[in-house]
Amino acid sequence: MPTKSQPKIKRSFQTAKGMRDILPEDQAYWEKIRKVIRNLTRTYGFKRIDTPILEDKDLFVKGIGAYTDIVEKEMYTLRTKGGEKLALRPEFTPAIMRAYLENGLSSLPHPVMLYSLGPIFRYERAQKGRYRQSYQANFEIIGENDPILDAKLIQLFFSISKEIGLKEIITQINSIGCSRCRPAYRRKVVSFYRSRKKQLCVDCQRRLQQNPLRLLDCKESKCMQIAAQAPQTIDYLCEDCNGHFKNVLEYLDELEIPYILNPYLVRGLDYYTKTVFEFWPEEEEGRQIALGGGGRYDNLIKLLGGKDTPSVGFAMGLDRMINLMKAREIKVASKNRPLIFLVQLGELSKKRSLGLFEELRRAGLETASSFSRDTIKSQLRIANKRQARLALILGQKEALDETIIIRDMVSGSQEVVPLAKVVKEVKKRLKNN
Ligand code: AMP
Fold this sequence. Notes:
By secondary structure, this protein is α+β, with helices and mostly antiparallel strands. The chain has helices spanning 27-44, 57-64, 69-74, 93-102, 147-163, 182-194, 202-210, 221-227, 239-255, 300-303, 318-327, 347-362, 376-385, 396-401, 422-432; strands spanning 47-48, 54-56, 77-79, 85-88, 112-121, 133-142, 169-175, 259-261, 273-281, 292-296, 311-317, 339-344, 366-369, 390-394, 403-408, 414-418. Helix 1 packs antiparallel against helix 5, helix 2 packs across helix 4 and helix 5 packs parallel to helix 9 (239-255). 36% of the residues are buried. Adenosine monophosphate binds next to strand 6, strand 10, strand 11 and helix 11.
């Protein structure tokens, strides 16, 4: 009963802005992509790791960088009753590196190859393809500098895409150098932009002080025009970074993976070094709907308190992969096993059906029932709707006689068999069909 201080409010609840339900009709897409990822990661040698959704807020501030959009604008943070400052993970990588260090995974033979699947949270402007809770598959190869691993991850993205029927995807790729060559490049960028500061958008004017490389990938048209004249990273790479990048591109050529060099791709996070890349549907070029992205982060583990451990990784946006599958009308075949529908009438048969349901399920038969419906007719109607192959009818007489009726739902023919032999009889009929 509402009290005086709690007036009766008539309202219907909705998902919070930017959040959405994934309905039963869409689950086949999600199952398909997860299955493909599970199979391919096994072939490629990845092990699964799951980390908590909530982490110490400072892990992301330190790992991603205080002056990034994610940390400045998009992170969901909270303070617990005990006073801890936590954040809903806005991405996986810092959390995976924390887990790697905390659980002694650094003592395993390297490279350590890990993957995760799960939600991330970003307080972004909600629109189609941009959600505040979205789902990623995240892949990391930890502890190797070899450029072949950068190419191998890109190859993995294309293998997954191909398996789910997505073609016409292009890789955008760039190298943003390392701690040796990037400072000089950064200075060049700052001096280039300083004289043009007034022409920049408000965000970029601020970024110029804190994260100047972000100016290169601003999507405001006036900033894009200026960026087109800006110094490009690849002209300032040291010998090591240059050689590494050249090798990555050679491997991609060898694998016949489509890519374009994008000198403005910087990925915006502090931890990246050398190779950075994103995957785009061909028709989306120029819009903000990348399917995935990643790169090298040779300094991240050290930054989080570990040893120098060069690593590379990427995240795939599952929501966007599925949206693209739908937009391109890719069908996911639901390979349903033939359905057996259990129909019962009367109290005794209802009781018997409970055990029988379990027996059929244990025998590997896909079984359904509608125990709450009373008439045979209404239960058969449901069996029909669900396209059951066979119905097993257990009426009062059958329950007493220890028999059951097997009804072929296509031909309508019926046969009485002993209850003890029902599994064998059902299997025989399915085989003959
Ligand atoms: P990022 O590391 O930010 O480039 O994220 C990697 C991928 O995750 C992106 O390319 C998107 O496919 C996906 N993603 C990131 N944020 C969102 C979001 N808010 N909504 C939907 N997908 C997202």
